[in-house]
Amino acid sequence: MSLAGKVAIVTGSGRGLGLSYAQELARQGAAVVINDVDADVAAEAVASITAAGGNAVSVVAPVGSTDTAKSLVTAAVENFGRLDILVTNAGVLRDKSILKMTDEDFDLVINVHLRGTFTCVREAYGYFKENNIAGRIITIGSPTGQRGNFGQTNYAAAKAGIVGMVRTWAMEMKRAGVTVNAVIPVAATAMTKTVPFFAKAVEADESGEVMPDFFRKELGFGTADDVAGLIAFLASEEAGSITGQAIGAGGDRLQLWSHPEAIASEFNDGGWDYATLRERFPFGGNLQSVGETFPELPAELQPEPAAK
Questions:
Q1: Count of alpha carbons within 13 Å of 255, Cβ hemisphere only?
Q2: What is the Cα–Cα distance from 151 to 156, expressed in whole angstroms?
Q3: How far is CA 270 from CA 141, 267, 274, 284, in A?
Q4: Which of 4, 97, 276, 294 has its CA 20 to 30 A from that of 219?
């Protein structure tokens, strides 16, 4: 177990993806601080780890505030003597198109995902630096943050912001030997259960069957456990040279996302004034697409028609 003796915090780890991350870290030998807003759910998560021979405690609190971030680090140190790994997974959804999205919808998602990542990383990094620990920080992004998605203004902003912070933190933390990366999971979650396109994949997952190859291979869509291995790897000593990256995981597919780069450049003597741009905007053939596009769903994987 390559993480033996290490201590990890996983926010939002009472269920779903976060629970899989926490369980995998524990399987690899790390003691884990579970975090959830529901005390019963957190207790069940802790029990699932201790029953398998691991070590875990819980902190029941919503992520976002500095107080919660401090409580998580304190719990790790007081219960297990140190902190080595932080996984910022906690999140909520309030999906609505922009004209229907309220201030409260926007602020809640930004507070939990973006501010929660910031406060927890700041607290963990402060501990790492003070104690000369070459820690591992793993944040969670999303394809929505990379490409956009209808009805997810708040979520897209938060997830894109997280990856932007990761690039900055990789530079700031380099001298301390701390790595920080973003994982972009593509997996069956509470959100994807509501999308008809993924119905057959979710059905297979819930019945304990292997998802069809179309999902696992062509779409790179799988289970929470398919992502957990990458989390544990990035937390290990072997991943010490990997930092500032956005790495996707889903089904049988692993992806390395590029950093934004200019794809075309044009120059005009005297600059690009309004009249010149009207006459010849130079990038018409290079405009980028938005959102994700999926191949056509095979007939045998089409969702069942809804009962009338």
A1: 21
A2: 9
A3: 41, 9, 12, 21
A4: 97
pLDDT tens digits for 80-116?
999 999 999 999 999 999 999 999 999 999 999 999 9
In a 13 Å sphere around the CA of 194, the CA atoms on its Cβ side amount to 4
Handedness of CA 165, 146, 187, 99 (dihedral sign): positive
Count, residues in the chain: 308
In terms of Cα–Cα distance, which of 121, 136, 140, 129 is closest to 189? 140
Name the one residue in this structure whose structure tokens are 């972009």.
184
E strand intervals along 61-102: 85-88
Cite the active site residues. 155
Look-up of token digits 């029990």: 47
Place of tokens 């992520």: 63
- The answer to whether the beta carbons of residues 139 and 132 sit under 8 Å apart is no
* pTM for the full predicted model: 0.94
Tens digit of pLDDT for each residue in 39-58?
A: 999 999 999 999 999 999 99
User: At which residue do the structure tokens 């979650």 appear?
Assistant: 189
The domains of the chain are located at: 7-187+223-257
Distance CA 30, CA 238 (A): 15
